[in-house]
Protein: Pyridoxamine 5'-phosphate oxidase
Amino acid sequence: MSDLAARLRTLPAFPEEMPDLDLEALPEDPTELFLAWLEDAIASGARQPHAMTFQTLLADGSPVGRTLILKDLDEAGFHVSTRNTSRKAQQVREDPRAAMTFFWRESGRQVQIAGTVVALGEDVSQRDWLARPTSDGQPNPEWQVYALRPERFEFLQARADRNHVRAGYVREGGRWSHGPVTTPAG
Structure:
């Protein structure tokens, strides 16, 4: 074991007390659980509880991620924004499959959301642009709001013994199905 590996093993991992994830009490709609966890993160005083890793695909199929913030959540999906000339905008034009990973270390919670990205209308994009703290009050034709339309969710509640509890949701025929997510031993 290297010195780095030994040092990394000594770093604190999870808080002493963490909430539970009751697999018997999952809501039918995963956005309900997501919003409850997001509200818990906001109430905890966590810094940037709306930050997530947004993953897109390069032309060769390799994943690439960057940290973005969730701008909104509605019937269109999970909103993010960027210039329509950015690399991530180009990537979602070439392959609209993407994923988001939220991590709230204060509660040991993580949510992965995967689906397809769509560009939202000019009105939504300009409202977002004009609400930015750096906006000069002028429209920005390069600004674009996108929505990730979820097809899969995985909720993870960490446990100190590392036997984390996972719940997965999959959209099938317009309806959500859910259950525990198990990982193979090894």
About this structure: Helices lie at 3-10, 30-43, 87-94, 122-131. The first helix runs from residue 3 to 10.
